[in-house]
Automatic annotation (TrEMBL):
One of its GO terms (molecular function) is sphingosine N-acyltransferase activity. The chain crosses the membrane at residues 39-56, 140-160, 180-198, 210-229, 263-291, 303-328. Residues 337-385 are annotated as: Disordered. GO terms for cellular component: endoplasmic reticulum membrane; nucleus. The keyword Ribosomal protein does not apply. It is a multi-pass membrane protein. Keywords: DNA-binding, Endoplasmic reticulum, Homeobox, Lipid biosynthesis, Lipid metabolism, Membrane, Nucleus, Transferase, Transmembrane, Transmembrane helix. It holds the Pfam family TRAM_LAG1_CLN8. The lineage of its organism: Eukaryota, Metazoa, Chordata, Craniata, Vertebrata. This is Ceramide synthase 2. It is found in: Endoplasmic reticulum membrane; Nucleus.
Length: 385
C-alpha cells in the first residue's frame, strides 16, 4: 500500500514537464543536483534553531530588553476558585451576562467580583511584554541575517537582474553550495516556527500565520524537489527584505520608544507594499506563471507551485490592509503605531474606573454629591429679605 502510494506520488508526470524526469537530476560530471532526501537535513536544523533561540532569548534578548527599558506589567493574580476556573478552562473565557448571574449564585460572588475575576484571569494568560520583546528580537536577528546572507548569495547571479534567467536550462540546473545552505536554513527556521507556535505569542491572525508557515514550508520543499531553486531563492529574499523592519518596530514599541517605532513602521510599510504587492505578483509570479509556458507544456507541478504562490499573495493582501490601516491612522491623526493583531490588557481602564467609583462614593459620604471631582454646592436655598 505504502509502496504504491509512494510510486504514485513520485511519478514524473506530476513533477516534471513532458520528456523530463528524475534521471535528468542524477549527479554526473561533477555536477550536483537537489535531491528530495536532502530536505531531512532541515529537521535537525529546526531543532538547533529551537535551542539557539532559548539561549539567545536568555543571554541576549533579556539584557537588551533591560537596556532599552522594557518594563513588565504588574498583573494581579486571581484568587483560586474551582467553579470559575473550571468554567474559564472548559466553557469560555468571556461569559455572558446570564452565565455571570448563574456563576454568582454558585460562588456567592457579586456580579462585579465575577467580572473582575474573569478580566484578571484573561490578563494572566496574555503574554508579558518581555516575552513579546524576546520573540521579536529573535525574529529580527534571523530575518536580518537571512536577508544579508540571501543578498550575498544572489548579488552576482544573473537571475536576480533578469528573471527569465530562472528558467535557462531548466530543470537541469546545478546546485550551488550557497543555494543549498540558504534553502536548508530557511526551511529549518520555518520548521522551528511551526514547532514553537503553541508557545509563541498568539495574535488575532493566528490561523493566517499557520497557513503562511505551512504554505512556505510546502513551497520551499516543492521548489527544491523539482529544481525551482532559482525562483525559490528570489521568493525568500523578497520576503526577508521587510520582515526584520517589522520586528525592529515591535521591539521599539515594547520599549516605549514611540517615535522610533512609528518611523521604522512607515519604512516597513513602504517596503512591504513594494516587495509584496508589486515585485512579488507582477515580476516573480508573472515569471513563474506566464513565462514557463513559453518554454514547456504546463504540468501538475507548475499549477501546484503557482497555487502556493497565490495563497501567499492572498495573505500579503490581508496583511497589507492591516498595515495600511495602521499607517494611515498614524499619518492622518498622528496616533501611535499599534499592532492590531495583539490582544491588549483589560486591567488599566477597568481598574481605574473601579477605583474612581470607589473614591466618588467616599467623597459622597464626606462632602455630599460631587461633580468632576468637585463638591456640588446647593444654590437652591431660600434668601431672607
Amino acid at each position: 500500500m505504502l509502496s504504491e502510494l509512494s510510486e504514485w506520488f513520485w511519478q514524473e508526470r506530476l513533477w516534471f514537464p513532458e520528456g523530463l524526469g528524475w534521471a535528468d537530476l542524477e549527479d554526473r560530471d561533477g555536477r550536483v543536483y537537489a535531491k528530495a532526501h536532502d530536505l531531512w537535513v532541515a529537521l535537525p536544523i529546526a531543532l538547533v534553531f529551537l535551542i539557539i533561540r532559548q539561549i539567545f532569548e536568555r543571554t541576549v534578548a533579556t539584557p537588551l530588553a533591560s537596556l532599552l527599558g522594557v518594563k513588565e506589567t504588574v498583573r494581579l493574580k486571581v484568587p483560586h476558585n474551582t467553579t470559575l476556573e473550571s468554567y474559564y478552562c472548559n466553557i469560555t473565557k468571556n461569559p455572558t451576562q446570564s452565565s455571570i448571574a448563574s456563576l454568582c449564585k454558585q460562588t456567592g460572588y457579586s456580579e462585579r467580583q465575577v467580572q473582575r475575576w474573569f478580566r484578571r484571569r484573561r490578563n494572566q494568560d496574555r503574554p508579558s511584554l518581555l516575552k513579546k520583546f524576546r520573540e521579536a528580537s529573535w525574529r529580527f536577528t534571523f530575518y536580518l541575517l537571512a536577508f544579508i546572507a540571501g543578498l550575498a548569495a544572489l548579488i552576482d547571479k544573473p537571475w536576480l537582474y533578469d528573471l527569465k534567467e530562472m528558467w535557462q536550462g531548466f530543470p537541469v540546473l546545478t546546485l550551488l553550495p550557497s543555494q543549498y545552505w540558504y534553502y536548508m536554513i530557511e526551511l529549518g527556521f520555518y520548521g522551528s516556527l511551526l514547532f514553537s507556535v503553541a508557545s509563541d505569542v498568539k495574535r488575532k491572525d493566528f490561523k493566517e500565520q499557520i497557513v503562511h508557515h505551512v504554505a512556505t514550508i510546502l513551497l520551499i520543499s516543492f521548489s527544491w524537489c523539482v529544481n525551482y531553486i532559482r525562483a525559490g531563492t528570489l521568493i525568500m529574499l523578497v520576503h526577508d527584505s521587510s520582515d526584520y523592519l517589522l520586528e525592529s518596530a515591535k521591539m521599539f514599541n515594547y520599549a516605549g520608544w514611540r517615535n522610533a517605532c512609528n518611523y521604522i513602521f512607515i519604512v516597513f510599510a513602504a517596503i512591504f507594499i513594494i516587495t509584496r504587492l508589486v515585485i512579488f505578483p507582477f515580476w516573480i509570479i508573472y515569471c513563474t506563471w506566464v513565462y514557463p509556458v513559453t518554454v514547456y507544456e504546463p504540468f501538475f507541478g507548475y499549477y501546484f507551485f503557482n497555487g502556493l504562490l497565490m495563497i501567499l499573495q492572498c495573505l500579503h493582501i490581508f496583511w497589507a490592509v492591516l498595515i495600511i490601516r495602521i499607517a494611515v491612522r498614524f499619518l492622518t491623526n498622528n496616533e501611535k503605531v499599534d499592532d492590531e493583531r495583539s490582544d491588549k490588557d483589560e486591567t488599566d481602564e477597568s481598574e481605574e474606573e473601579e477605583e474612581r467609583e470607589a473614591e466618588d462614593k467616599k467623597d459622597m459620604k464626606k462632602n455630599g454629591p460631587v461633580q468632576n471631582g468637585h463638591t456640588v454646592h446647593n444654590n437652591n436655598h431660600s434668601k431672607t429679605e
